[in-house]
Design brief:
single chain; Rossmann fold; 2 domains; binds nicotinamide-adenine-dinucleotide
Length: 591
């Protein structure tokens, strides 16, 4: 099933993604808030940075990815923060859910919408009555702003179910703990403080109870509900084992050989602190869910994870981009996309040769390198300016990549696919060139330098090389646009080629950078399109003049490459890429 997971770079959802990705095609939508980490997501899972409140972005994602189900985890989740900044919680948790529901409604093709809520919507449970909250039998009486926003979001989900037939299931879960939880929540907070030899602060008397579910059990509950949860139902997810916060702190002290008497300190309680949440998960057990992890095992495993990871690095700030090529076409487009996506980014102020200065100033986590000499008006210029070409395309590019490598910065390097030309093993209409095929086109000096540098860059494990070809965008008046160029030539060859529709592929360059993809990728749309086909889409019926490749070579300083690049590797990383002709129709010629 095609699954959209919101908040997938957060704690629970990322474990869920790891669990279900073998069975489902997953795309993650996450705004990469402070508690999210791209390290939570395997490189081969699609991660789209975006806010669920951004209706246009969410709609575009639905249109592109065509999800069959949504599992909606994204939320502001830390109760303590909700006392100080509760409007943010309403905005993300209520408005965000509403936007998602509205997009799901107009999209109309979801089979399931799993809405992840919390046991806190029930409000405080009584020790005296000792009756557990059941899904249908308990009125929701949230006591803190976080819980109120989660309850409000549930109401919207239910209303969309009744009003528009949205196929929803709601979950109300206990506290979850486990590896890779942002250390503001109580268990990782106590663990990281204990590791630093600091005191473990307990709000109030520490005798309020919570039930803690290990994240692997929470994930299996979500998988069960996705698979077998009945539409329109609510499922509690919990364990009957309750623990006081004090006993949790004591158990953690024991693991670090600390004396609880001295290691624990009691601090003022937060504005309101429920004493107990007590839920009944019988309904979920009926559809086959069985939690497996013991507290002792789960806690030991969690502590081991924090001992093995540097939490400052793990939740390092969201990506900061440094973009080379501000005045170029692709560099400019990248800036626009980063701006639209809400990323932190800077255009380089220095040339590649002096990249240290920009790296010192901006501390980028990611570099997008769209700087380079391609020649104006075309690559023929490079034939007579060889040292300039070497300086920028080889020496300076290598220097920047080497510097970034030493500083642990990821580089997305825009390269060219014009290093191949049709040959006996790869004739027109035959198999395409894969990333592993050695270059066979050295006709232009531009291509030769690109081959040399690609060969060297391959050795750097921080670099993602994207081989573009004949880039086209909807901006048909841009002189760099392939369509602009061929539409202005007196005569044009007519040869099928791989091409890159920037409007579709450039957003993926940013996505892949965030995901930390590396290695060489053919970065073109699947399939080929000929010059004639492009021109006919551009101006149907216009009498273009064509000539042969041999005739063309007579008027060029450097021959041009024509080829078909195999995009299997790219399609594996970004399922659903459009064939070049469909992409041209959709992104370039339908506007
Ligand atoms: N952790 C628990 O103990 C617990 C218990 C019960 C229910 N829940 C619920 O489970 C879900 C996940 O909780 P978690 O602890 O994994 O949270 P988390 O804070 O670790 O992750 C939340 C994720 O949502 C993302 N996000 C927040 N606002 C967003 C927005 N507007 N658009 C896109 N992404 C956004 C964040 O970047 C983050 O990656 C939440 O809905 C929470 O209410 C959590």
């Amino acid at each position: 099933m095609r699954l959209l997971v919101t908040g997938g770079a957060g704690f629970i959802a990322s474990h869920f993604v790891h669990q279900v990705r073998a069975e489902h095609e997953v795309v993650v939508l996450d705004k990469l808030d402070y508690c999210a980490s791209v390290k939570n997501i395997p490189h081969d899972v699609r991660l789209v940075k975006g806010d669920i409140r951004d209706a246009d972005a969410v709609r575009a994602l639905f249109a592109r990815f065509k999800p069959e189900a949504v599992v909606h985890f994204a939320a502001q989740t830390h109760v303590d923060n909700s006392f100080g900044n509760s409007l943010e919680f309403t905005s993300n948790n209520v408005e965000g859910t509403h936007v998602l529901l509205e997009v799901a409604r107009t999209y109309g093709a979801l089979k399931k919408f799993v809405h992840v809520s919390t046991d806190e919507v029930y409000g405080e449970s009584s020790y005296e009555l000792n009756s557990s909250n059941t899904e249908g039998g308990t009125i929701l009486q949230p006591t803190n702003p976080y819980a109120a926003t989660k309850a409000a979001a549930e109401m919207l989900v239910m209303a969309y179910g009744r009003s528009y037939g949205l196929p929803y299931v709601i979950t109300r879960g206990n506290n979850v703990y486990g590896p890779a939880q942002y250390p503001e929540k109580v268990i990782p907070k106590f663990i990281t403080l204990a590791m630093q030899g600091k005191k473990l602060p307990i709000h109030g008397d520490g005798l309020g109870t919570r039930s803690y579910l290990h994240v692997s059990d929470a994930v299996s509950a979500f998988a069960t509900i996705l698979d077998r949860g009945v539409l329109g139902e609510v499922y509690n997810i919990g364990t009957a084992q309750e623990r006081t916060t004090l006993s949790v702190a004591e158990d953690i002290c024991a693991q670090f050989n600390l004396d609880p008497e001295t290691a624990i300190e009691f601090v003022q309680d937060r504005p309101f602190n429920d004493r107990r949440y007590y839920i009944d998960s019988g309904k979920l057990h009926h559809i086959g869910w069985v939690p497996e992890k013991t507290w002792e095992h789960g806690l030991a495993e969690t502590i081991a994870w924090y001992k093995n990871h540097n939490t400052d690095e793990y939740w390092s700030p969201a990506p900061t981009f440094l973009v080379y090529g501000k005045n170029g076409w692709i560099g400019g487009l990248l800036g626009q996309l980063l701006e639209k996506g809400g990323y932190t980014y800077h255009f380089a102020e220095e040339r590649l040769e002096h990249c240290e200065k920009d790296m010192d100033t901006f501390h980028p986590t990611h570099i997008l390198n769209a700087a380079g000499i391609t020649g104006r008006p075309n690559v023929d210029w490079c034939e007579t300016h060889k040292t300039e070409v070497i300086q920028t395309n080889v020496a300076a590019t290598l220097h920047m990549i080497d510097t970034a490598h030493r500083r642990g910065v990821h580089v997305t390097n825009f390269a060219t696919g014009c290093i191949y030309t049709y040959d006996e093993a790869h004739p027109r209409g035959g198999p395409g060139f894969t990333e592993d095929d050695p270059p066979n086109f050295r006709g232009s000096y531009y291509s030769r330098t690109k081959c040399m540098v690609e060969e060297l860059i391959k050795e750097y494990d921080n670099v993602w090389q994207l081989r573009l070809r004949m880039p086209i965008s909807a901006d048909l008046e841009n002189p760099r646009n392939f369509v602009y160029k061929i539409a202005r030539y007196d005569r044009v060859v007519d040869i099928p080629n791989s091409m890159t529709v920037l409007d579709e592929l450039l957003p993926l360059a940013i996505e892949g950078a965030v995901r930390g993809l590396t290695g060489v990728y053919n970065f073109t749309n699947p399939g080929v399109v000929s010059h004639r086909e492009v021109l006919d889409m551009y101006k149907p019926g216009h009498p273009w003049t064509y000539f042969t490749e041999e005739e063309q070579n007579k008027i060029l300083a450097a021959p041009r490459s024509n080829n078909f690049l195999d995009t299997t590797k790219l399609e594996r990383a970004f399922p659903g890429l459009m064939n070049i002709k469909d992409s041209l129709k959709k992104y370039v010629f339908s506007r």
